[in-house]
Amino acid sequence: MDTNHNKKIGLFQLIMLGLGSLIGSGWLFGAWEASKIAGPASIISWVIGGIIIGTIAYNYIELGTMFPQSGGMSKYAQYTHGSLLGFIASWANWISLITLIPIESVAAVQYMSSWPWSWANWTQNFISNDSITTAGLLVVFAFIVIFTLLNYWSVALLTNFTSVISIFKIGVPILTIFMLTLSGFHPANYGTNLHEFMPYGTAPIFAATTVSGIIFSFNAFQTVINMGSEIENPKRNIGRGIAYSLIISGILYILLQSTFITSLNPAMIAKNGWHGINFSSPFADLAILLGIHWLSVLLYMDAFVSPFGTGVSFVASSSRTLAAMVSNNHIPKFVGKINQQYGTPRIAMVVNAILSMLMVSIFRSWGTLASVISTSTLIAYLTGPVTAVSLREMAPEFTRPFRAKLLKYMAPLSFILASLATYWAMWPTTVEVILVILLGLPFYFYYEWQHGFNKTKRAFKGSFWMIGYLIFISIMSYIGSKEFNGQNWIHYPLDFVFIIVGSLLFFYWGTVSSVMTKYFKQAQRVNAKVKK
What we know:
Number of helices: 26
Protein name: APC family permease
Number of strands: 2
Main location: membrane
InterPro entries: AA/rel_permease1, AA_Transporter_AGT
Transmembrane segments: 12-31, 43-61, 82-112, 132-152, 164-185, 197-221, 242-263, 283-301, 347-366, 372-394, 406-425, 431-447, 459-480, 492-512
Order of helices and strands: HHHHHHEEHHHHHHHHHHHHHHHHHHHH
Membrane topology: Multi-pass membrane protein
């Protein structure tokens, strides 16, 4: 019907929704965090991060166009490997999404805490030792409530809001690049030799990719996929929406990193080194140092707007992910109920809001939240390449509006890159996130017990490779090189070789572990509706 068509999300709105998710607190803090870790070579970290997420997204474009459904990323793994792998993948993905809602609020509150005006003294107790205080926590809770309410009524309200806000979010970083470059351009900060360019060696370039929030900054491409059936002409628009939003944000992030490096006073670097650069509100502080006070005011304002747009987008994405998990029969059915009038999963939104508040009460700093998000997302993403390759064997007859020509090479490559990036999160973060993911298993086993453990053995057969992989990556994180916080039993860069070889073995094991279950029949039904 026409009315229904009008509610669908067009390509421009989809790109704006993607950019609204991608350009959040990552640009406000990522360049500073990466510079502290890797110095000028941090610009390479952004290129590596973009390549990793780009190769992962390549697999998901084929999957997203084959199964254009809301919360799709929660379902692909169960189609090919049964309920247990589907549960692990969707739970890991959901953990990252509900952590994304509070991290955007924390970013806004951290910028608020350094407001330089006398009337704003009351905001200065929001942050203490890089952590949110109780007073700051209440403001974070208020943001989470507002993000949720903006999604509560309709998809139309969400897309109109994010399209407007995304234009502002792109404009301010571009203006920042232009003004900071005009006011203080020191290309010599890149150094005149390799040692000055890489003051701490090559390992921190890789570490910065995960630890400083670069992977987190690119992660949001899945917002496009999770909107699924709400997208107008998904066959054409899913791939384009992901590609355009990733390319635009990637160029912007690299330019911002370069601007941050070249805008710093060389005397500050000479005195403190890159490790010693300490800002509360990085780009706003830089603008004040360079005497551009009006820009600092705009940046303080954008510290509200950028996280706001991303927070709103991820309330939409995370609620659809949780609602989609209900069809896996391991979450109470009422959680996934869609409101008939507005077409939104309202109960899922409320559950996510409460859990987001709980998450930020435990992990109170931007850096910790960014590490949790990056690692849990990467673990969820590992199933995508395996699923895409498995479906080529299981269902060659399925309609594939986008057929990834390079899948044979890109699938194992993206699996390897995701494994390396998980390792770069450093010990003990890797293991901590794996434990958080495993906390969901009691839900799985409770519902399996209710169904009389029907076909649970087959579900295990499809998931042993992932369980083995999680043990492998945990052990590698512990025994790996000191550069990544390990015991240094395996030295850098030999640790990378072990992970690459191990990942290829687990990837192959995953592709031969597919199982035919009732969920594959669901996949057939969804794919049958796709136009060639």
